[in-house]
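I would like you to sit down with the record closing this message with an eye to the fold:
=====
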Amino acid sequence: MAFPLHGGDPRRSSTETTPLLTEGLGRALKFGGQSAFYAELRRRVDEYFRTSGRRQRDCWQMYLKTTILVACLIASYVLLVVVAQTWLQALGLAIVVGLSAAGIGFNTQHDGGHQAYSNHVWINKLMAMTMDLLGGSSYLWHWKHAVFHHSYVNIAGHDTDIDLGMVARLAPHQKRRVFHRWQHLYLWPLYGLLAIKWQLLDDFRKLLTGRIGAHRVPRPKNWDLVVLLGGKAFFLTAAFGIPLLFHSPDVVLVYYLVVALVLGTVLSVVFQLAHCVEEASFPLPGKVSGRVDNAWAVHQAETTVDFARCSRVAAWFLGGLNFQIEHHLFPRISHVNYPAISRVVEETCRDFGVRYTLYTSFRAGMASHFRWLRRMGR
C-alpha cells in the first residue's frame, strides 16, 4: 500500500503508488496490505468524538493558545529590542523570545501545516505561514516534514528528518564514521544550530537545487514563492534590521544567537525524543519489492514513541508532540485532542499486538536518546 500524502487516510489498494514521491528515489515505497488495526482504530476514535461531542478541529483552545504565544513573542521581542537595559535582562528576554517562537512552531504552525488547526483551508494556510515569519518556509516544511517524514518515518535514505549527513548517525542503516563514537557527547550543543541552519542556509539551498535530501521537489511558484521570499525578508528585518537601529552589530548578533540556539535546541530535542530512541524501529523496505513489511498504521506506531504523557505543561507547550504516536496516526486531528484519544490508541494497539512505547517522563526519553546515540556511534 502506498503511504498517504499529507497524512491522509492510508486506505488504498495494495498496488497503489504515489508518483510525486518517485522523483529522486526511483519509486515510491509501499507498505503491507490493508490494516484491520487501523480500521478498528479509526472506528473507535470516530466513536469517541461522536459520543463526547468534541470537535476534531477548530477547537477554541487552539485560538486561545495562539493568542497567548503570539502576544508573548511580540512582547518579549519589543522589550528585548527597545526596553532591556542590562545584559541579564536581555538574556532572559532572548530566552523567552526563543521559547515563544518554539511554542508557535509546535502549536500554531504545526497544526496549521497538517491541516489540523481548522476545517477552513485558509485558516490552516494562515497558521502554517507563521513558519515563514519565524525564518523558515512553510512550503518547504510541508514537503520535508508533512510529506517525506510522515510518509517514510525512520526509513534511512527516505526520511529526511533523520538525515544529518556526516555529522551524526541516527539510524542503524546509515554509514558509521570513526568520530561518531563521540556523537552522544558532541551532538547536543550542535542541535542548537538547527534554527540558524534553516533560517539562513538550508531553505535557500533547497530553493536553488529543488531537492530535499534524495528527493526532488517542485520549486515554489507564484504565491508560494512570494510567501517564501517575503517571509525571509520579514524575518531578516525583524532579526537584524530593526535591532540594528537601536544596538551595535555585535550586540545584535549575540542575542540573535541566543534566540536561535534556544529555538534550535528545543525543536531538535523534542523531535529526537519521538523517533531516535532505543524502542523505535528503523525498518528497511525489501530491495526487490520496495515494500515495508508492516501496514502503514503499524509502521507509524512502531517507529514512534510518546513521552511525558501525564504532563499538562509538556502537552500545552509542545503542541501535543509528546503524543507522537497519536499525531502520526491522526495528523489531521488537532493536538488538543491527543491526551483524550491516547487511551483509545494505546488500548487498540494492545488489542492488536502493536507495540506502543511510552516514556513516563521527559528525562526518560532524553536518557534513551543518549543511549541510542552512543549505540549508533559504536
